[in-house]
Design a protein that fits this description.
By secondary structure, the chain is of the alpha+beta class. The protein folds into three domains: 153 residues, 2-Layer Sandwich (Gyrase A, domain 2); 55 residues; 59 residues, no CATH class. Helices cover 45% and strands 11% of the residues. Strands 1-2-3-5-4 form a five-stranded antiparallel sheet.
Amino acid sequence: MAHCVVPEAEAILDREFKVLDKGFIRLVDYLGGDARIVQAARVSYGEGTKSYREDAGLIDYLMRHEHTSPFEQVALSFHVKLPIFVARQWIRHRTARVNEISGRYSIMKDEFYLPADADVAAQSEDNKQGRAEEPMEAAEAAKIRNLLDKGQRAAYEDYSSLVEEGLARELARINLPLSLYTEWYWQIDLHNLFRFLSLRLDPHAQKEIRLYARTMLEITRAVAPAATESFERNILHGVRFNGAEMAELKRRLGVAGKGAPTEATAGMAKAGNAAPRKAPEQGQEPLLKGKALERFEEKLRSGKQI
């Protein structure tokens, strides 16, 4: 198979998808699509063209069974404009190739992220790294936005003055805040892109980076729709259970025989502060206790809202 052309991807190349107040994502290039995944998986049998339904079934099988290398044959290149605090979270995903604008060579633009009133919230009481679900009152939110805006303006005025006075740009930039917008080109293969999306679409991720991930998911759908659908079904909206949790799930479902905890799963249940080893029969006390049971219950209730 020669160069793989995906009409839906071609239609959105270089199109800006707005994110936040001043940010965007553009798909600037792509390598392969669903057909490339299928070709890579069937390399032992030649090209072996199949129907779309059969190809989608193969892709789904690969996704479910974590045969990841065919997905690595597809790559996407993005141009992203984003606040620096989002970029610092994003860059933790080290499986991509990145080229970012440099404040040592370029004059940084007077562009800062200012959250909307609805996104201004107090520190969460039960989540040390996130905000509360309910936004602050409108008057308090407006006051905070004004303070943020005032600080951003002052920082940029100082930066501009230092540059005009001849200070090296690499030094003049150091007091600029994390709300400043930066830009980069970000290239990643499809397997690692799905890993990025699974983490950054999670409700526990910061809202601002979730918005970028949500836009990126839709762009990816244009490049590889069958793979993206399989990712959503099996990974994004799926839940993994450890050995102890699986034993508890089987107990609740009344699964006998193979449902009984093995030495390994019983040991894991014990490590999770579980009750003594028993066959997973309905009506029996939960095998999990305390925090381990709470985490299990949360998984059963979970349904990722993206």
